[in-house]
């Protein structure tokens, strides 16, 4: 694929870094670049400042999209936040334009085809990092990519050669257009599928179809790894994958499950099963995998212990952006005899909190559940049906309330596990997590 001299439209600059990295990468390859974003220059100021030295080489169309940009440019590169059914993207597709995003460009320009792509609703970050952890014991040239705002995909291509094992987390937003671009990872893993992102994908079938694009163009010598016990696995099999299919389950794990659960929580058993299945398929032995268990990496913002003294432990689980993830946190921590305080709530994405509410009523007393106000929080309150709630408009007030509750206890835990997105108050869940860490540091140090 030749980019030099091509007229390229980048749709969506954003302020999180991915748009800037894509713009710089496209310019490095000699494209004639136009950037369009519905946000104006004031909102995009942080990103525009990073492109200051290159602004003479870029045409900016901000605060609006113009039809002619989508018709006059040869290649349309869309930001993950831009849906594939956006009316301007549709216009470009109907006009025969080439549609790309950072994932499809990465695949086309990465010198390695030893790509392992992990997707799913829950557990994909942990599974991605644990697969890479196992592979590094055999190949130090292993690269972990995805779900890290400070490591945009295209920026990382320069770290790859033909021998690099690329282990990448792939969200559904990037997979939407992969049915056209023929993204073909050597190994595709789908951890599970639960209700999520329906504000983007319309319904569960649409969400599942986007996920299925991870294996749509795999060949017979590729591998598809599926969760034996997830209800959507039959849907994926009905798409008739060409790759060899391997199922993972916690049933046949050759480890001390009780010891593993005590350290990592029961929800991580399936993540371990998925990661070890890939490691076994790539030639590691059961013993080699077992040797790596004590050194498994703790994932940032995933039930991460961020503070501990003799009386209190605080965990940051900001990556819990769904009811299922919050349920997993409640199941893990409420089994303790200690005082457990949960801080939850956030932005709704057409999620269903009924099942979560059943677990919450078992796991938390009303006075031990502190809610951060938001559209999802209103649904959570409705499903719980309690008379009173501790609810606050700021994360700082939530934390202060939690600390007041635990002051009188001998040993307590505070679990920040929102169970929802964060867009009403934060840039994203990572920003939310960083702000929580800063508050803990400010109040307790």
CATH architectural arrangement of the largest domain? 3-Layer(aba) Sandwich
Number of domains: 3
Structural class: alpha/beta
Q: What is the CA-CA span between the terminal residues?
A: 53 Å
Percentage of residues in strands: 15-25%
Mean pLDDT: 93
Can you tell me the overall shape? globular
CATH topology tier name of the largest domain: UDP-N-acetylmuramoyl-L-alanine:D-glutamate ligase
Strand order of the largest sheet: 7-8-6-9-10-11
| Level-1 CATH class name of the largest domain | Alpha Beta
Which stretches of 5+ consecutive residues score pLDDT under 50?
none
- Total DSSP helices: 20
3D structure, described in words:
The chain has 20 helices and 17 strands. Helices cover 38% and strands 18% of the residues. The chain has a 6-stranded parallel β-sheet with strand order 7-8-6-9-10-11. The chain has a 6-stranded mixed β-sheet with strand order 12-13-17-14-15-16, with helices on both faces. Strands 3-2-1-4-5 form a 5-stranded parallel β-sheet, with helices on both faces. It starts with 6 loop residues before the first strand and ends with a helix. α6 packs parallel to α14 and α19 (395-406) packs across α20. The model has no long low-confidence stretch (mean pLDDT 93). It is globular and about 70 Å long. It has 445 residues and is α/β, with parallel strands linked by helices. The chain folds into 3 domains: 7-100, NAD(P)-binding Rossmann-like Domain (Rossmann fold, 3-Layer(aba) Sandwich), CATH 3.40.50; 104-295, 3-Layer(aba) Sandwich (UDP-N-acetylmuramoyl-L-alanine:D-glutamate ligase), CATH 3.40.1190; 304-444, Mur ligase, C-terminal domain (Protein-Tyrosine Phosphatase, Chain A), CATH 3.90.190.
